[in-house]
Design goal:
12 helices, globular, Hypothetical protein af1432, mainly alpha
Length: 185
Amino acid sequence: MISEARALEILKENITNKNLRKHHYGVAAAMAGLAEYLQGDPKKWEIVGLLHDADYEETKEDPERHTMVIAEQLEEEGVSGEIIRAIKSHNYEYTGVKPESTMEWALVSCDDLVGLIVAVALVHPTKLAGVSVESVIKKFDSNSFASGANREKIRMCEEQLDIPLEEFVKVVLESMKGRSELLGL
């Protein structure tokens, strides 16, 4: 399996924007926490979170190529097909790689939730430390707040992972709070 150190190198080689990197760190934290909750492999899931959007700066204007560019790079690195497939599956609308595994559905569901939680933290006076599950759910129900966060994808946690929304938010939020310094929140 690819090391966390190498995954971070790949991320930094591909993503120059520090805020975009922080999104990756947030998703990596969420994925590690979800792996523990769902009895997955925290290191593998964290790598998936770190690299899930690693080609975004190159492909943001071409969503059909998003995840395919980083997948090709990871194949050249000898990264496992399981990790590559998970990364491709989170852009399934364009790649045609439908999420199947628990790890893949966790990525689909937590990616937008991490963005929503960051948005809630940015408007809170004490940043992430003061964010509660209740405050995230309140903003979740307000479609005009962080409108780019796809609520349908987040809600897939209920159907695909059998985790109630509030519990899913709790796991992701607590995982992110554990890395608040790295996230700058």
